[in-house]
Design a protein that fits this description.
228 residues, alpha+beta, Immunoglobulin-like, 5-stranded antiparallel beta sheet
Length: 228
């Protein structure tokens, strides 16, 4: 009894599946270009041995399958090259990011840490604003200080708080929340807030470097809006 000849689509699909005859080969090479070619040649040889003598495979069909194999092999090699390039870039990014260790950065967040009458926060403005107001609140949600920063250009804007309350008193050291409100052509907008912290460490990762910003936590390198 003869085995029906597989069409090209079925052959390519089979090339991407596990082949029991290759089970003894190292797992690391299972998806390599060489392993793919071995599977193709094994399957092609099996097809030729079991083809119907009255309806043999023609040269055009074999050539088409071999061309598709070359395409699959080329894509595999391209993927390997891109992965190596990505790994190299990630490592370079991590090495470069270590220069931030010990420096202050602005990252997404809405807290300011008051220490010795000094606190820093930031605002990420996607457009120029006519006026900008920062409201600082204590843990209970009570307003401690309100700062009017006036008109500002688009971009990252750091601000400093001297620890004074609206009543002129000195606020206790600790963590405070803040909100921002901007006016643009008579309309109220809410820009993104940024918290300030010091980079303690940089950790490489598959998706890029992660920076440890102390009590604020870990952030992707792309989340760092400004190094100060």
């Amino acid at each position: 009894m003869t085995t029906p000849v597989q069409d090209s689509a079925a052959l390519i699909a089979s090339l991407n599946a596990a082949n029991s005859s290759l089970a003894k080969k190292p797992a690391a090479n299972a998806n390599s270009s060489g392993a793919t070619q071995d599977r193709f040649l094994l399957m092609l040889t099996t097809q030729l041995k079991n083809q119907d003598p009255l309806n043999p495979m023609d040269n055009a069909q074999i050539t088409s399958q071999m061309a598709q194999l070359n395409t699959v092999s080329g894509i595999t090699q391209l993927n390997s090259t891109l992965q190596a390039l990505s790994d190299s870039m990630s490592m370079g990014q991590s090495v470069s990011a270590t220069s931030m260790i010990g420096h202050g950065v602005l990252v997404p967040g809405s807290t300011v840490n008051l220490t010795g009458g000094q606190a820093i926060g930031g605002v990420d403005l996607t457009q120029p604003v006519d006026s900008l107001k920062v409201t600082i609140k204590d843990a209970a949600g009570n307003i401690v200080n309100t700062m009017q920063l006036g008109a500002q250009k688009a971009g990252v804007l750091p601000f400093a708080w001297d620890g004074k309350t609206d009543a002129g008193k000195v606020a206790a050291d600790g963590s405070y929340k803040f909100t921002v409100e901007a006016m643009v052509a008579g309309n109220t907008t809410t820009p993104a807030t940024l918290a300030y912290g010091t980079v303690n460490a940089v950790t490489p990762g598959v998706k890029g470097a992660t920076v440890d910003v102390g009590h604020l936590g870990g952030f992707a390198l792309s989340a760092v809006k400004q190094v100060m």
